[in-house]
Amino acid sequence: MVLTLGGDHSIAIGTIGGTAKATRERLGREIAVIWVDAHADINTPETSDSGNIHGMPVAFLTGLAKEDKKEYFGWLKPEHKLSHKKLVYIGLRDVDPAEKRILRDNGIKAFSMHDIDRHGIGRVMEMALAHIGTDTPIHLSFDVDALDPMWAPSTGTPVRGGLTLREGDYICECVHETGSLIAVDLVEVNPQLMEHGAQETVRAGCSLVRCALGESLL
Predict the structure, then answer these.
(1) Choosing a second label site near 57 at 20 to 30 A (CA), which of 92, 94, 184, 210?
(2) Which one-letter DSSP state was computed for residue 111?
(3) pLDDT digits (tens, 9 = 90+) for 125-159
(4) Catalytic status, residue 80
């Protein structure tokens, strides 16, 4: 079980790529990824308005974005790649028009905050895990901006209307309970961005990690 603390979410190109490669080599299996984030991070260099790599990691991991130069992402080989069918988003609420088209065109399973409001986090997790399938190695990649800024203000791209801390903890608890969690990223915790919100954000991040590692309320 590997825990990686970021950093912006572009680090997932390396962490998830590494998990995918190691799992294929050691177990002969592909991984599933649960991507918890306010943002889809699936722009390609051609669709991105900002050109920020932290808005593109899923595109590179799924092969939607390609880079032949080894000094950039040319090292990404088929063994590092992630299947669209084994990817689930949770918590989306700030998605670019081009990203919406990419999600629809590729049939990628995504649960927005609307879905969480409608079904509740318990039902959303049931549907997310059912989509992945049982006994599949899981990499959980959690951007702290998935939480509402009232819980985690000290982050690079906060978006109002997000998960409560309790909902975030529940996601981590559910994934831990599957017994299939093999890697966790926690990214975008940046105490330097907001002096008065730094400790709240750090505490929220620590809570998410503890739940993913198996801490329970009782």
Answers:
(1) 210
(2) E
(3) 999 999 999 889 999 999 999 999 999 999 999 99
(4) no
